[in-house]
């Protein structure tokens, strides 16, 4: 296996593990490598999901959020200092909505029992929750915000 193939595998694993939360970040990582053109030509092997437009950048000011309902999931799209994140509107402690839970940095707090989650990874930051929340891919193109299509 060549050094480039090994680096590409590591990038893909980081992407699949949620360490790279957006296609923008995946592209940024891939661009670091000399053979970006060859990787881009093979990008279809990453099997990225279909995306659906949910808003314009100006619709979600820094510190703001919007909700979108899909057939089986309601999500929150958040703007934290110009970076956009998408999480399930679900506290895994009691299956209630995170709704208007306060945000501190990259943490959202459940308004009922105080469980906190990292909006970048879904990781649990404080009890009483013990299970991470789902996070979804986000990309921004030409001022439009897209998230992975959850109805696929």
TrEMBL record:
Q: Which UniProt keywords apply?
A: 2Fe-2S, Iron, Iron-sulfur, Metal-binding
From the UniProt record, which GO molecular function terms apply?
2 iron, 2 sulfur cluster binding; metal ion binding
Q: Which PROSITE patterns match?
A: RIESKE
Quote the InterPro entries the UniProt record gives: Rieske_2Fe-2S, Rieske_2Fe-2S_sf
Rieske domain boundaries: 52-147
- What Gene3D superfamilies has UniProt attached to this entry? Rieske [2Fe-2S] iron-sulphur domain
Q: What is this protein called in UniProt?
A: Rieske domain-containing protein
């Amino acid at each position: 296996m060549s050094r480039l193939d090994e680096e590409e595998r590591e990038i893909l694993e980081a992407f699949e593990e949620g360490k790279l939360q957006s296609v923008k970040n995946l592209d940024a990582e891939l661009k670091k490598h000399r053979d970006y053109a060859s990787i881009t030509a093979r990008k279809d092997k990453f099997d990225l999901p279909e995306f659906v437009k949910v808003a314009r950048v100006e619709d979600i000011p820094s510190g703001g959020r919007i909700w979108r309902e899909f057939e089986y999931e309601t999500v929150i799209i958040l703007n934290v200092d110009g970076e956009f994140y998408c999480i399930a509107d679900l506290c895994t402690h009691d299956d209630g909505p995170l709704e208007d839970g306060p945000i501190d940095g990259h943490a959202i707090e459940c308004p009922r029992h105080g469980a906190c989650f990292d909006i970048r990874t879904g990781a649990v930051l404080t009890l009483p929750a013990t299970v991470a929340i789902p996070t979804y891919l986000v990309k921004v193109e030409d001022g439009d915000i897209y998230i992975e299509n959850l109805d696929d």
